[in-house]
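Support request from a user on the community tier.

User writes: "When I paste my structure tokens into the form, the page sometimes reloads and wipes my input. The last time it worked, I copied everything first. Here is what I submitted, just in case something in the input itself triggers the reload:"
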């Protein structure tokens, strides 16, 4: 696995920045190589991306999501891509936010491994964060926002179908019916600063609390 950590200062309020990041289907507008993201339900997304010239599809599960603070995820369901990551958000003042991203990726094939050795992954993450910064700073508000609380104890890779990684027991939608928890609860750990904190565990292991 190859670890990349990057941080950027965004000239926009914390709530606006966080809300925009939750709009996963907008990622192709600023993430290099991401062709499509389909949000299957509150936890699961299906991705189509081009990596080192090769088209790949994979599913990700959100392991931990705390509004205005952090989102962590991992690939699931025998995906073509193996990765896990965490992004955190820190309020600097009323109009500035620090975004910190840690990504752990397993390169696939000779081309991707060669690219990783040359630092292509790091350059790509830096570029994605800069494009996100430019995207949100050019707007008056986020394109949307989902402020539900997803807890590590509730994440599971059990029951995933081979096609999409969707569990039949999991609900769908991110609208009014979803459980809302917009404020951090007392006792929730905080992970401010440039290092986002521990990455989620691989499927089948106990996720970080």
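"...and here is what came back when it finally went through:"
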């Amino acid at each position: 696995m190859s670890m990349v950590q990057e941080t950027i200062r965004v000239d926009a309020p914390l709530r606006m920045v966080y809300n925009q990041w939750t709009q996963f289907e907008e990622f192709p507008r600023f993430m290099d190589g991401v062709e499509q993201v389909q949000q299957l339900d509150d936890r699961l997304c299906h991705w189509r991306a081009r990596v080192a010239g090769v088209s790949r599809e994979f599913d990700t599960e959100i392991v931990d999501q705390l509004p205005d603070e952090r989102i962590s995820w991992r690939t699931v369901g025998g995906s073509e891509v193996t990765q896990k990551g965490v992004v955190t958000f820190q309020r600097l003042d009323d109009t500035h936010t620090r975004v910190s991203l840690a990504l752990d990726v397993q390169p696939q094939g000779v081309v991707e491994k060669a690219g990783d050795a040359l630092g292509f992954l790091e350059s790509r993450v830096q570029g994605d964060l800069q494009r996100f910064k430019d995207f949100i700073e050019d707007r008056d508000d986020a394109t949307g926002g989902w402020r539900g609380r997803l807890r590590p104890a509730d994440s599971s890779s059990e029951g995933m179908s081979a096609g999409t990684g969707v569990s039949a027991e999991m609900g769908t939608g991110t609208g009014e019916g979803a459980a809302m928890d917009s404020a951090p609860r007392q006792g929730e750990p905080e992970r401010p600063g440039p290092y986002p904190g521990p990455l989620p565990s691989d499927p089948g292991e106990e996720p970080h609390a």
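Agent notes: The reload is a front-end session timeout and is unrelated to the input. The longest helix spans residues 120-137. The chain is about 15% helix and 30% strand. Escalated to web team.
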